[in-house]
Design goal:
This protein has 192 residues and is an alpha+beta fold. It has helices at residues 15-30, 39-46, 48-58, 61-64, 68-75, 120-127, 136-142, 167-183, 185-189; strands at residues 2-5, 8-11, 80-90, 96-105, 110-114, 131-133, 164-166.
């Protein structure tokens, strides 16, 4: 099968893969909005293409400005919004936090989507380019990866090696972990 993207013909070997990728990109783009009034207008001031993308997803400018819960249910296959995630500030350890997104589900999908970079706090998180050891059980108690975690265990690790992750993303993950445990774990347990 051939598809045309920006006037370039591309051979598509598995149309289902393209459809799943497209669906995933739409779920991710929907994280740009929420149930608060005028969120899309605020974001679109700096990035007007977000409003255009939501218009493409929903079919009209009017629908693009509806609350997220309505868009998910009416335009995305009956998804039920379980939780909006919105955490910003500074951890006790001095790490910047700024993450927004949502968790939604229907009989076919569990969606966890995060908003892209839209604020100065997001950029501060992005610039935190050190890596931290993946120690969720320890770090979720504190709510952040700890002071100097970006430098711990970088050398002389021996047999105690732990996977490492971007410190900024990891601290945002730790901040929303309670939402993930509360809203996603229940669906995962059904498939164990």
């Amino acid at each position: 099968m051939m598809r045309t993207f920006d006037k370039v013909d591309v051979e598509v070997r598995d149309e289902a893969v393209i459809d799943e990728m497209t669906r995933g990109m739409m779920f991710a783009e929907l994280a740009i909005t929420d149930n608060k009034e005028k969120t899309l207008e605020k974001v679109a001031k700096n990035n007007p293409w977000h409003a255009k993308a939501l218009k493409l997803i929903t079919g009209s400018d009017e629908r693009a400005h509806l609350p997220l819960k309505d868009i998910l249910y009416d335009d995305m296959g009956g998804l039920i919004l379980d939780c909006e995630m919105d955490v910003s500030g500074v951890t006790k350890g001095g790490h910047f936090l700024d993450t927004q997104g949502y968790i939604a589900h229907n009989n076919e999908y569990v969606v966890v989507a995060f908003r892209c970079t839209t604020s100065i706090f997001d950029w501060m998180t992005n610039f935190n380019t050190t890596s931290s050891a993946w120690e969720v059980d320890q770090d979720k108690v504190e709510g952040y990866s700890g002071m100097c975690s970006g430098f711990e265990g970088l050398c002389c690790q021996g047999t105690e090696y732990k996977p490492r992750v971007h410190t900024g993303f990891y601290n945002n993950f730790l901040a929303i972990l309670p939402d993930l445990e509360r809203h996603v774990d229940q669906y995962l347990r059904n498939y164990e």
